[in-house]
Amino acid sequence: MDEQRVVLITGVSGTWGGRLAQRLLAEPGFHVIGLDAEPPEDEIEGLDFVQADVRNPLLAELLRSEGITILAHMAFLEAARHSEGAFDFNVMGTMKAVGAAAESGVRQVVWPSSTMVYGAHPDNSAFLKENTTLRGSRSRAANRYRLEIESFLNGFRRQAPEMALAVLRFANVVGPTASSPMNQYLRQPVAPVLLGFDPMMQLIHEEDVVEALAHAVLTGADGVFNVAADPPMPLTRILALAGKLPLPVPHPLAYRTRLRRLSPFSPSYLRYRWIADVTAMREKLGFEPQYGAVEAVEAVATSQRIARYRPGSEAAAYDEERLRATIERRRKQRASQTGSNGQAAISEQAEREADHE
Predict the structure, then answer these.
(1) What's the rounded mean pLDDT across residues 163-188?
(2) Do 134 and 119 meet the contact criterion of CB atoms below 8 Å apart?
């Protein structure tokens, strides 16, 4: 019999942590423990939940006592502006979690990053490989934190070569539910663009994000991997597919205002290309996205059309996934109660027959 793999997912109450937990729970031979400061809003059937902050000093003891073999570190706040609290949670929290993993003998750590860490520059190569120097913009706090975490992990990898460390740098994430800069950008009534510029961009569907993370866990991946769908597309093509009206902004004005009120991207990302090479994703990681880039952006457009026709509370009436989970949960509860009641009825009948005898 294969040894059961015990994985601990931090940030399990967040989008990626919760979805990864559900995905791994569908795999045989896995015991999934979820850790977060607050329990998931919706119950995740089969999840072994531990309520604690990832920065808790006893994390290493928990990892040892539970026999954790894999740490999927999904705890991350997508902060737009810097704060001491967000820095402590994102950067210091990651350092403490990875340090605890090494101290307790965890065999693999998986962490999601972003291709935004490369930065958008006029001298970028056509395809940015994983060993390219990271020159990402620090104007958005989340990207600044990722750059600091990547710097730490790069040094940590040399100190603990016996532990597999999989870093997945995802392209712009899009989909019906993902909370990401690109989704935020495409959900606005108009999308600001820099006048005279039309950079190539990459996308990845939110479901492929979950699948890539699960694949890294299942295969024991080690290394840094860019993850993106084909093909890269000009920004104007993405906006056309999403049905968005571009709002041209003169780039000197954009840099002066930083477009903070209009765009989740710093101006350079709307000016220069930042296309990641995905050769390692296919040849070393062995992963292939199921959604093409066109399908991924069309999924956003479709979800927006549905939301527009079913606004406000009416949207809840079409939340099939939640209702399906509720129906299944209640069906199992009824089956369990029926089984208990049926056994009780048989016992009562046996007692009555014994009394007659």
Answers:
(1) 93
(2) yes
